Amino acid sequence: MYFDRRARYLKAVFTPFDQWFSEQILSHEVSLTRYLHRVWPNMSEIPDLRQDIYVRVYENAKDSRPASPRAFLFATARNLLTDHIRRSRVVSIEATADVAAFDALVDEVSPERHVGATQELQSLSLAFDSLSDKCRRVVWLRRIEGLSQRQTAERLGLREVAVESQLARGMRTLARAVFGSNDGGKDADKSYKPGADDDE
Amino acid sequence: MSSTEIEVAASAWFAMKQAEGWTPERQIEFDAWLKQSTAHRIAFLRVSEAWKRFGDLDAPTINRTPGAIPDRGGWVWCSLPQDAERSLSGERVDVHQNPPLEVRRTVAFASRALSPRIWRSAAAAVTLAVLAAIGLTFWYVAHQNTSYRTEVGQIRSVRLEDGSHVTLDTGSRIEVAVRADERRIDLIGGDAYFEVAKDPARPFVVSVERARVVAVGTQFYVERDDNGLIVLVTEGKIRLERPAESPQEVSAGSEARLDASGLRMSHPTDMEVEETLGWRNGYLLFRDTALVEAVAKFNRYTHKKMLIEDPSIAGIRIGGHFRLDDVQGFLWLLKSGFPINVDERGDRIVLTKRSS
After folding, report:
1. Testing the interface with A: which of B5, B20, B277 to mutate, by most A Cβ within 10 A?
2. What does CATH list as the number for A117-191?
3. Contacts B165 to A, Cβ<8 Å
4. pLDDT on residue B25
């Protein structure tokens, strides 16, 4: 079966630590992004900052997983921002103060950790609807209907390579929706414009 | 390489990996790409996780036939620019022309046929509220307390002297007396979320009328309305005490509703918890909620009240995620997704049925 094969691939890629990272670190992306927006004056730098924070967490947590992943994530974020401020010397004083005051902020930023299912489905549906018609069809048939790339191509009368590229672009938008970080979207969206490719 | 470029590469790998044409050569290339940097690995993890979670979108599509891709109308989708005039004109705005962050968003799930049952039960609720208001005598002895209140539309977080935190929702008021043997909060009106600092020697008591919610170190939400009270515990447990009744323990994940008919316990789902507590993040959440209830909730946060003039639309079911201050977004959704007319008349917003 197609899905079994996919599952095997994914298993081969991901280690138990990757699994842990997805569940315990990536799941805080909404809070993290909100925190970064609050303390960092330059919005366009946020996706890169976030990536640097993840890399640091991943590499530091690999050998011994922190007991409190969320606290570890935010502590890492603060340290990294502090480093950036020291290096750049152009960040406003408010940013410095806010970064330092992060302990108070973390509570405020996300009081509920366990809720968010509705919100997630809603932002997913919004993101899904923002895709072009073609892209929507491809993502839906591949993921929800479980069709293979070839079957999807046949069903929609597309070439397989088109299905693949539509899936890639759709997933990018959906990843941002899932993790609630609809910030860096600006840059990514410049490179393609959903809807523009809708030639049917 | 910027994070955006990495994101693009990770999605491309992901899509390629999902396809039939995957070969051992590609696997080697892919492994090399993954190894090249931790950022690559993390980007790939993110896309995979999104793929996994996107599968959940199967659930909220109503009346879906297998094989069919839901219409964009399967969820009524609209995006609103800051400019209310433009949004009220019903113009659809492409989210990609505006940075997504600056766009306020709204979703509604499919509406259902109006149900007379809902209308009847709303009427019953009103009757009950009147009876309860008559039946309950206002019980409150003024101590030399500290009083905290919020105006309409305001949400406020207060740190008490014992280290506990209280977050007051719109139009709410509490009286606080921290004493040597007890920390006492009287919820005079509205609703609030309590994060209690541990102190076994001094119980933390939230009183609503003659009912007492007793906690030691825990987090919970209390809402007082005309009917009685709602207690939702999110961490630890509390004890609900009433005169002439044995105390009832309520633990994390449980909700207790007390009204004229008695006490009811339930175990809300994560989504229901979010509906109750969404205001703390600045949002109102509706899921299969009757319009009449959604309007009542919104009205708590605004001075300009919405009024349903036509009972036949009161039972329309809506779902969505709205910023507390985004009444315009809510109205825009009603106009564009439902047969509803929106009329701003002075200090009121009147909702009527639109004849098509």
Report:
1. B20
2. 1.10.10.10
3. 107
4. 87
Q: CB of B255 within 8 Å of any CB in chain A?
A: no
User: Does B69 sit within 8 Å of A136, measured CB to CB?
Assistant: yes
**In Å, how far are A76, A101, B166, B279 from A108, measured between CA atoms?**
18, 11, 12, 13
Question: Is B57 in contact with A124 (Cβ distance < 8 A)?
Answer: yes
Shortest alpha-carbon distance between residue B112 and chain A (Å): 18
Running DSSP on this structure, what letter comes out for residue B302? -
Q: What is the pLDDT of residue B74?
A: 52
CA-CA distances (angstroms) from residue A183 to A34, A43, A44, A46, B182?
10, 8, 8, 8, 47
What is the distance of C-alpha A48 from the center of its chain? Answer: 12
Placement of tokens 């917003």 in the chain: B349
Contact across the interface for A51 and B95, Cβ inside 8 Å: no
Contacts of B53 in chain A (CB under 8 A): 120, 124, 178
Q: Which contiguous run of DSSP H or E holds residue B257?
A: strand B255-259
Q: Which ipTM score applies to this complex?
A: 0.74
Res. A143: pLDDT tops 70: yes
Q: Do A174 and B18 touch (CB under 8 A)?
A: no
8 Å CB contact of A171 and B47: yes
Please list every residue in chain A whose beta carbon sits closer than 8 Å to the beta carbon of residue B233: none
Return mean pLDDT, chain B.
76
% of chain B residues with pLDDT over 70: 75
d(CA B348, CA B331): 13
pTM beyond cutoff 0.80: no
Tell me the average pLDDT of chain A: 72
Is A184 within 8 Å of A176 (Cβ atoms)? Answer: yes
Q: Are A143 and A186 in contact (CB under 8 A)?
A: no
Enumerate the residues of chain B whose CB falls inside 8 A of the CB of residue A174: 50-51, 54
**Tokens linked to A11:** 């298993």
Query: Cα(A122)–Cα(B137) distance, rounded to whole angstroms?
Result: 43
Predicted local confidence at residue A93, as pLDDT: 43
Contact A144 B55 (CB under 8 A): yes
SS3 percent helix, strand, coil of chain B, rounded to 5, is 35, 35, 35
Domain spanning A16-109: which CATH class is it, in words? mainly alpha
- pLDDT for B65-114, tens place per residue? 566 777 664 543 322 223 332 323 333 333 333 322 222 233 333 333 33
For chain A, give every domain's residue range: 16-109, 117-191
